[in-house]
């Protein structure tokens, strides 16, 4: 995924920074503990499509 694209992406919920998890192909908001999926290299920045992180999940 393009690093420059990642720089301009923010969480749609809190407008905070996102952490890229390459292994999972997800963008994670630590504040909201939400993981947004990356499908075919395109981040899906929809709260309705986001996954809630498990309580014991490490967000790096
Ligand atoms: Zn957020």
TrEMBL record:
UniProt family annotation: In the N-terminal section; belongs to the LpxK family. Belongs to the UPF0434 family.
Which keywords does this chain's UniProt record carry? Kinase, Transferase
**Annotated GO MF terms:** kinase activity
Q: Does the keyword Protein transport apply?
A: no
Q: Domain of life of the organism in this record? A: Bacteria
Q: Output this protein's name.
A: UPF0434 protein DAI18_12775
Q: Which GO terms describe its cellular component?
A: cytosol
